[in-house]
Amino acid sequence: MLESTKAIPWKIDWATMRFAYIGPQIETLLGWTQDSWQTVDDWVTRMHPEDRDYVVNFCVSQSQAGVDHEADYRAMTRDGGYVWIRDVVHVVRHENGEVDCLIGFMFDISERKRAEDELLRLHRELEQLSLTDGLTGIANRRMFDQRLETEWADARRSGKPVSLVVLDIDHFKQFNDAHGHVAGDECLRRVAEALRDVVQRPRDVVARFGGEEFILLLPETDAAAARELAAQCVERLTALRIVHGGQGAGDYVTASLGVGTVQVAGACTARAFVEAVDGRLYAAKRGGRNRVEVL
């Protein structure tokens, strides 16, 4: 009856660490003949190297403690491939409490693992989409808020500065009025790409803050470096030469920028810092646009 099922029964004598029995279904699943399973070493060597230490140590410790257990691992097939296996183990003990043998079943869980991996991939993809601005492909406001919280806490511990550059496209409503919203979307994408080219470090964040406003989060960046990056943003934007010509605007698209740097200490909050730098941006707007204001 057991040999007619897909579950593969087996028994190991604890004293000798030899297989007393293993079902013939093992050959169908892994390619190894039934009589090739002699000792525990055959089980160990036919396991994926990345799984081996953890699974063996776990199973031995649980068996010694007399605890029934389960273990998932990749078993090697005779042709060098791998199949995901779930081993369900029952520990049989003598009347004196010492381990007599292990009786268990091997189950092929490859399909389940593939489904789990696909679900995990889709979850990660969805999570990434939820943190990405759909129009420009850069980080969105949610992603910025998460990273700001992380970097703010790190800066408080390390004492290193954090800088922000906030950028807003000048006369963007007039740009849309003159060229249409499709052109406006393309303008936002080109500006985002230019800003992404400015920051090079993995921890730096370029995000769309909302509408035509963008923000750069620059961990471990002092005031001089932040001003230099802001200047580079202006240069990149100028080099795009996106024709504007809308009412009240110049020939090409420009932007106003606010820049700030802080040493995180005391009651200083991330929100207050963002608001202060954003205030510098609007000071740049009031000062005539196409300029940088430093906090």
UniProtKB/TrEMBL annotation:
Listed EC numbers: 2.7.7.65
Gene3D superfamilies to which the protein is assigned, alphabetical: 3.30.70.270, PAS domain
Coiled-coil ranges (or none): none
Annotated ranges, domain PAC: 69-121
Catalytic activity as recorded in UniProt: 2 GTP = 3',3'-c-di-GMP + 2 diphosphate
Required cofactor names: Mg(2+)
GO cellular component: plasma membrane
Enzyme class: transferase
Signal peptide residues on this chain, from the entry's feature table: none
Molecular function terms from GO: diguanylate cyclase activity
Domain GGDEF span(s) in chain numbering: 160-295
Entries under InterPro entries matching the protein: Diguanylate_Cyclase, GGDEF_dom, Nucleotide_cyclase, PAC, PAS, PAS-assoc_C, PAS-like_dom_sf, PAS_fold_3
Gene Ontology terms describing biological process: cell adhesion involved in single-species biofilm formation; negative regulation of bacterial-type flagellum-dependent cell motility
SMART domains: GGDEF (SM00267), PAC (SM00086)
NCBIfam families in alphabetical order: GGDEF (TIGR00254), sensory_box (TIGR00229)
Protein name per the record: diguanylate cyclase
Organism whose genome encodes this protein: Stenotrophomonas panacihumi
Taxon lineage: Bacteria, Pseudomonadati, Pseudomonadota, Gammaproteobacteria, Lysobacterales
